[in-house]
Amino acid sequence: MIAGLVVTLLAAVFYNVGVLVEKSALTALPALRARAPVALFRTLFGRPLWLLGFVLMLLGLACQVTGMALLPITVAQPMLAVGPAIVVAGSALVLKERVSRADRRALVVIGCSLVMLGLSYDPREEPVAQADHPLAVTLVAALSGAVAVLVFAAAGRTGGGVVYGVAVGLLNGVGGLLGKACAAVLARTGRHAPAALAATPYPYLSCAFAVLMLGALQIGLQRSQASVLVPAQVVVGNAHVMVSGTLIFGEPLPADPVRLGLRWTALVVSLGVLALRQRATAAPAAPPGAAVVPARSALPMRRRPQGRHRRVT
Q1: Does the residue 288 lie in any domain?
Q2: Predicted TM-score of the model (pTM)
Q3: Which of 9, 58, 86, 196 could form a disulfide with 16 if both were Cys (CB 3.0 to 4.6 A apart)?
Q4: For position 138, what pLDDT does the model report?
């Protein structure tokens, strides 16, 4: 139990520190475009600082798969919600992005949900699934990928960090689902895992979705604040993995009413982070047809034309 919790927290730390390093590298890069994927990845992989962030993200994903092999989905995945706390703090310290009151409230919410998750887990009552379901996982991955592409296209028109976060979160959720399937194969086959994984669609789907997620994440980070995009990404990805993963893999929830209440409360509380971020970033829209009147102090002062003085004779 302790090993699974530690590895999962390390996954959140590595992944989100990698996001911050990549965001720092992206500030010095030209505009990235999804319609030019070769130029996009050529630009990214030619920057040492960005490569460092990429390696940290890979370490985070490896720790995530390991954590899912040791913990049930409803424990491992919500613990990744510590990521927004790392990103918000790092964005303020390193990237000099403004931390709003909603950001601070979100940190409190995340801390409370992590405590409740730890208290709700009993490894004796919640065995980790060891059966994978290739058809169901592939179907969910295909549907989620299609929705993510549509949301990303909408984000390109609106430029909203939350919308980019939803698109990346859907892709990240598919990655988590595939990671859980790989973890089930690893737990079941042991030392024969490489050959067993090669016979499944999971490694190939993981590579395809990793490329999509990586490109979408870099474009979203360049066009919006990391402290806005990442919380939305984490919450949407967590919700996706917990709902679809619980239905597919059938891992039981706690039988004890107190633990079950803590688990559900933690899940609901972690989803509340997205609502806080949306309210913090939503700008009040002007009514249609309303004219924007600048403040009096912003108007340029016009000098009154001096008229000709009439000569008095």
Answers
A1: no
A2: 0.70
A3: 86
A4: 92
